[in-house]
Design brief:
Layout: H1 7-21, H2 23-28, H3 33-42, H4 44-59
Length: 61
């Protein structure tokens, strides 16, 4: 995906990458929100994509 135009594009890209890496299965087994947030912060693909999106959204305001 070359450029993101909305949050949905970012989410779709992350979901596809995580599905390939079986991250969604590991994520689904987590029991609470704290563990899920920590998982996202530790996962390179998720963290980098969310960070890119936040940078774009914050700079456009």
């Amino acid at each position: 995906m070359a450029a993101y135009t909305c949050w949905q594009d970012v989410l779709e890209d992350i979901t596809n990458r995580c599905r390939k890496a079986k991250s969604l299965l590991r994520f689904s087994k987590l029991k609470n929100h704290e563990d899920r947030v920590e998982f996202c912060l530790r996962d390179d693909v998720i963290r980098n994509k969310v960070q890119q999106w936040l940078n774009i959204m914050c700079s456009s305001r």
